[in-house]
## 1
Amino acid sequence: MKRFEGKVALVTGAAHGIGKQIAKQFAEEGANTVIVDYNPETGTKTAAELSEIQKSIFARANVASLEDMQAVREQTFAEFGRIDILVLNAGIAFKGTMNDFTLDDWNRLIGINLTGLYTTVKAFYNDFLTNNGSIVYISSGSALSGTGGAVAYPAAKAGGEGLIRGLAKELGPKGVNVNAIAPRLIDTGEMMRVNYPTQADLDAVLKKIPVRRFGTVQDVANLALFLADKANSYIQGQTILLDGGRTIA
């Protein structure tokens, strides 16, 4: 029997990159998946690909909207009748200084990266009071380092880690495991090059990583599944830094 057979895993921001890989590995381990994303073209394509492994549906949503996430909950239960795992992965990033960053930019990023955590959990909260489920937040090493683009990005990620710790206390007695992963220097292609636009930039930072490689989407997905697995349920309220030792170097 596969680790997540009979379970339903919902991943936000799952049309590509880290989110897609997490959803794919859940499918490979027997879970039905809900691909939540704002982009219907890539989201539908990802759900179709994963359906070749295990049943998967696409749900279009702006995670900053509680109404959208409540509709996602309805769609999930109409299709599968349950929810077991939430992976809070949706996020955006901008590069620039405080002077470059407008209030509209701030509100948009905080809306998706932080408020989107609240709306997703809020929509499914009552289900997690009885399902003995798992919630995994994909944070960022930026919450600790202050890097990652404009100042709103590390601010939102740090806020998300606080939310996760609060949820861990609140939902732990209900049998729900809540943890976060803080990836740093994960080579997803486009996002890496926000901060390291040239090969020389990439080569320079690689020398600062003790394991001498960048992280992969598989690295993040492996840890996400580990934290969602009830065999590891004594881990609670933690943020695990996944950075090849970069932060200590």
## 2
Amino acid sequence: MSDSNDSAAKAQGLAKPATKRLKASSLGRFPFVIPEQMTGDLLVIRDRLFLELDGNDSIAAGFASSTNGEGTTTVLLKLALVTVRIRSRILLVDASPEMSLTKMVGLTGRPGLAELAAGEAIGEVVHTSDVKGLSVVPAGNFKDTELSNVDWPLLMPKLRERAEVVFLDMPPILTSTAAARASAAGDGLVMVVAAHRTRREVLQRAKQELQHYDGAKLLGTVLNGREYFIPGFLYRLG
């Protein structure tokens, strides 16, 4: 089976959540069959991310935008689908009060990050899927005010133990400290930017916010177009 056919096969219907698997109906709105042109851009992003973190036994990268509505969750999910081709265990973590990732994969109401932060065992909050190698920790029962209190240095090793690659869907940098704090506890942060929409001054403010936290690292920026990704993963904010 070719690479493109294999990725399409992996993206087919998912099982019911009674066995902690993702519901097929919940993925109906998400374009898991990725257009070929977009696949090429995603592969570039994936490969540059791995090059940036070359030598790490595992990868834990947060994804966040400067403000709401820039497509962070969509970028993360599509990038996960091309990453699972080369890494056997991928864990997606919903750490956003918007719960976009949780809603997209049909895990609303299931135990997740909130319960893990409250002391639940990691095995109780990781939900597998029928996309081989891809698992999800949904948001769980979070209140907005609790997210900033997550002990990321404590939780990050637990998440790393479950996967080779951990991608965290974070709230916007300018509305929450969670992205910066998780970045400092992990390997860094990928900033998602809506092409032709987000002003450079806003991006500069987001970068400055990250610099307030020791250890927080900006890995690069993904320019997210409406119909395709614009290459430029390691575009630096000068």
## 3
Amino acid sequence: MNHGINGRKNLWWVEKVLNTRFFKSKFTDFVSLVDLKVELWDGKEWREQGEVKAGMVLPEEFLIPIDTGILKNSSEKIKVRFRTITGFFEIDQVHIDFSENEPVKVKELKPDKALFNEKKDVLPVIEDLNNKRVKMLVGDKIDLVYPAPDLAEGYERGFTVALTGYYHTDVHARENPFMKNEERGFLETVKEALTAIIDAVKALPDLFRMNSLMNSVYDAPLEERAEKVIINNVLPWVDREKQE
């Protein structure tokens, strides 16, 4: 695949194109190639239980629930396998836990404050889930301050945080104000990008080549997808980059 998409000028609208109905399922399947799939043998076939997505947070522990209820024979050995393409993951250790689930009490909390870079309270912005966003650049942070509920005897406190929003895969991507967060179709998105940015037309050949590649590997076996995407496209691109 050629590499003619100018990420700084075009990546923001290309990402929106890839999230339209025309592309989304194919693109999700396409990028899942680099994920680590966790599968359980049910006696007849391998059943997917979860996945670990590739990214920068991999030196951590991951918990994948396993549904042993699907086993055809409860007395047989449990067989779990990890599937991914070669060289993307290094696994230090694997454990399986059969202990009883501990009682859990969940209480949803709303923050009292949301301090942007320790200065401005952006709570009114992030509470509006429909139209408003806080734009964050590299180095920015938001400190969320919550009221601490009483802790019952014998319990330990833990937390999870639910977030909404979006990010650009290229931190240098430049947005254009003509396109807000409204849902648009594939052709409408491309048409508006071409109208607003003259150079956007230069990205179309690579976008269409990507679409052709995604179509060719959609729902294909892992080995076929790895050959067509990694061996035939990614590795030659890496070699060209090294030579340049």
## 4
Amino acid sequence: MRSLLRIWALFLFVCVLAPLLSAAAGDAVSIAIYRGPGVGGAGPEELKKTFDAEPERFSARFVGPEEVKEGMLAEIDVVVFPGGSGSKQAEGLGEEGREIVRSFVAGGGGYVGICAGCYLACENYSWSLKILDAKTKSSKWRRGRKELELGVAEGAGERLGLSEASFVVKYANGPILEPSGSPDLPAYTVLAVFNEEVAENGTPEGIQTGSPAIVAAPFGKGRVVGISPHPEQSESYRGVVTRLLLWAAGREAGETGDEGGGTR
């Protein structure tokens, strides 16, 4: 009798439970968090912790430049480039690695760039990926570090998962964006703006307030999110990053700039 019960239990697992578990795991968004030259701060670990807390929705791992060059992006849905130095991240990837990331997004992958990763996505540097029709307003980037209020753009609350009109997050020398006007790139959609600014170290005053803090745009068949500040390091607003990542993966209802239009 016990033998029959064991066989029956095994049958249930193999034929019923295992496929369900496999399907559930397959539904999780596969994420590569870049951790290599040019990455710094607490952002990568905070991101991993956030994704690991929801294993039914996310499956995240750290990757370096060699893994990118070896083709592992073919196994994932979204790549996240966190804070640090955009130019050093680009240098670590090398020309080959940068082209692989571009091709990944153009082919339908998602890209989320936070602070340095947002610089990396921009159009105006020789080393940048040029997957976002954005440039920095000033070459003087050391604006300082401060908790800053962001304003939610009209109609963007659902995309960000926020009901409030404004929220406060950490800022640390992130890019101050404006359209680059590239004929080869679609316009970005503004999801949040800076309601205030910090302008230390001789950086120009008056250019941050009202400028985009979070933007989203298509690139080829893929989707790009650029985030200047650090919501991933603000416990109350880590959900903003997960919502944007789901959009980048094409997992969320409602479109944001998919047709190449939108506002800037």
